[in-house]
Design a protein that fits this description.
Blueprint: H1 2-72, E1 76-79, E2 88-92, E3 112-117, H2 123-137, E4 141-142, E5 146-149, E6 155-159, E7 161-164, H3 165-169, H4 173-176, H5 179-200, E8 208-218, H6 236-239, E9 245-250, E10 258-260, E11 263-267, E12 270-274, E13 281-285, E14 292-294, E15 297-300, E16 302-310
Parallel strand pairs: 1-12, 4-6
Antiparallel strand pairs: 2-3, 3-13, 5-8, 6-7, 8-16, 9-13, 9-16, 10-15, 11-12, 11-14
Region (Disordered): 1-37
Transmembrane segments: 47-68
Protein name: 2-oxoglutarate and iron-dependent oxygenase domain-containing protein 3
Length: 323
């Protein structure tokens, strides 16, 4: 009977060996499953990393493009500062802005567009005109980044306000400006007017100088009033109903005298820029076909003069006279 009692443990021992084998197999399957799961997770992490890098690269490209188009507007440069242009003209369809104003046949725009030329005003003349602006603006100047001098109305930026320089400074003006200054100013205006008339196929005698026509001095100083916020997109015909043709004569050089400050035409789907160059004249019809803005000046000082024209003689003004 004793051997039979020993048989129990043997059977139990044999059964225990079979259970151990199955346990080993289960452990191996578990470890294999864990390894497969880890490999799958590692592979998934690698793909996620690749996807993240690709999406990040795409995002950078999209943001860069958005920055270039919306901020720098370099989709197309119409006029580089380093080139000297004889004449460049781009015709664009006219907007309906002119229909809400009285039309003057032979003058009100039927052909619209924008032009750039370096062949009307010499760099030497631009330097002389700039000195007029510098002397006038030395009498005042805005606390912010944009200062205005209007020789027609006498408006001059002083601090956060404007004063009439002819009344405010009286006879002192005779020490600041000369008759030769004003003669040069009138001659430059006349040549620009003729250039615009020729480009748009109208008679220069049908155009009238209108207000505001002014010098501007822009630097990187923080804006103190809304008058200093020159960078907002706008339409001249909407801002000033009398405007039909707008021109700018640049009196300093992009990248040499200042950074930023380029003129940007904001067309549908693309921005087109004009890089200022002393003596360069940029002109365009004043409606919403030429929505535009000026980039913020980042460093240095940008000088220019805006000379505007109307077809309505009731809105015309005369040339400034030194009295």
């Amino acid at each position: 009977m004793a051997p039979q009692r020993r048989a129990g443990p043997k059977a139990a021992e044999s059964g225990g060996g079979s259970a151990g084998t199955w346990a080993d197999r289960g452990e191996r399957r578990r470890l294999s499953s864990v390894r497969k799961s880890r490999a799958h997770q590692e592979s998934r992490r690698k793909w996620l990393k690749v996807a993240f890098l690709v999406s990040s690269a795409v995002l950078v490209i999209l943001l860069s493009w958005s920055y270039l188009v919306s901020e720098d507007g370099v989709a197309e440069v119409l006029a580089h500062y380093s080139e000297s242009l004889q004449d460049r003209f781009i015709e664009v369809p006219c907007s309906e802005d002119y229909d809400s104003h009285k039309r003057f046949e032979g003058c009100t725009p039927r052909k619209c567009g924008r032009g750039i030329t370096d062949a009307v005003i010499t760099r030497e003349e631009a330097e002389r005109i700039r000195r007029i602006a510098e002397r006038g603006l030395s009498l005042g100047g805005s606390d912010g980044g944009a200062s205005i001098l209007d020789l027609h109305s006498g408006a001059l930026s002083v601090g956060k306000h404007f004063v009439n320089l002819y009344r405010y400074f009286g006879d002192k003006i005779q020490e600041v400006f000369t008759e030769e200054d004003f003669q040069l100013y009138r001659d430059v205006r006349r040549r620009i007017q003729q250039t615009i008339a020729q480009a748009f196929g109208i008679s220069s005698s049908s155009m009238y100088l209108t207000k505001p026509t002014f010098f501007s001095r822009i630097n990187s100083t923080e804006a103190k009033t809304t008058h200093d916020e020159y960078w907002h997109p706008h339409i001249d015909k909407v801002t000033y109903g009398s405007f039909d043709y707008t021109s700018l004569l640049y009196l300093s050089d992009y990248t040499e005298d200042f950074g930023g400050g380029r003129f940007v035409f904001m067309d549908v789907g693309a921005n087109r820029t004009v890089e200022p160059r002393a003596g360069r004249v940029s002109f365009f019809t004043s409606g919403s076909e030429n929505l535009h803005r000026v980039e913020k000046v980042r460093w240095g000082t940008r000088y220019a003069i805006t000379i505007s024209f109307t077809c309505n003689p009731d809105h015309g003004i005369g040339d400034p006279v030194l009295t």
